[in-house]
Amino acid sequence: MLIRKCKRTITAFLVLCLMAFLCACGNKEEEKTEEKKNVPPKDYIGSIDKDTLKMNGDGSILEIACDDYSKVDFNISTLESDLKQEIADYNEKNGKTDISFLQYRNDSGVIKVAIKYLNIEAYNKFNGTDYRLEMYSPDAIQKIHMDELEKQAEVIINSKIETLSEGELAEAGISKDDLNDPVRIAELTGASPDAELSDEKGTKVKAKDIENETYMMLITNMEISFDAGNGEVCYVNDHAKIAGKNSAETDGKGFSAIVFTLGID
């Protein structure tokens, strides 16, 4: 009889311990849930006030788009929901989540949106742009350089043709055929035939002399701010400038080239 009472007492004690343990676990889970509720959402936009592309270590891209509607007669009340729907439709059509809506903010009529893209291909397809993001290639930089010089030389030659006689043109050695000669193009424009890039100190370096297998480059004719994230901006061409260790800005007046390293997140 005494043994049975002891067993019942021990069993009751164990049940009470188990209940206390479960209550404690439940309280901890509630505390964790409450903590999660109290954690503010991540601010991706911060103090950014111009269109910015930021590279992530995994090759994905964070875009901060800034559009000023403060002086425009436009109903912006549905912009956020419209954009979310557009992204959802895009992902559904492609059968995968290439684009993620992260944040929306209205700063006195200036709409700022943070969107994450799986890669540059998804960015271009969604926005109808032609950004190039690839491993560094001096040949690609050289082509950008010569294409621009050719346009400048063509303007110079056409101007001469309009103002000079055939005899004067012949005497000056100017003809349309000059556009097929890189050396002649350089002479007409007064520029070096070799493409050059500038480092953070503004020192010019020939593109063909830069050798680093880890370098990547972004090429665009859009005016943007670029953020290399945990990477570093190393060189830019004449249509861009280095703004900081990991940032650069393009002027949108021609094809900009930004050479950078990809950091690890």
Structural summary, described in words:
By secondary structure, the protein is α+β, with helices and mostly antiparallel strands. It is built from six helices and 13 strands. The strands form three sheets. The chain has a seven-stranded mixed sheet with strand order 3-4-2-1-9-12-11. Strand 6 and strand 7 form a beta hairpin. The longest helix is centred in the N-terminal third of the chain and has 37 residues. The N and C termini lie far apart (68 Å).
In a nutshell, what does this entry contain?
The chain is an alpha+beta fold and about 260 residues long.
Write the layout of secondary structure elements.
Layout: H1 2-38, E1 52-55, E2 61-68, H2 79-94, E3 99-107, E4 110-117, H3 120-127, E5 132-135, H4 138-163, H5 166-172, H6 182-189, E6 196-198, E7 204-206, E8 216-220, E9 225-227, E10 232-236, E11 240-244, E12 247-250, E13 256-261
Parallel strand pairs: 1-9
Antiparallel strand pairs: 1-2, 2-4, 3-4, 5-8, 6-7, 8-13, 9-12, 10-13, 11-12
Helix pairs in contact: 4-6
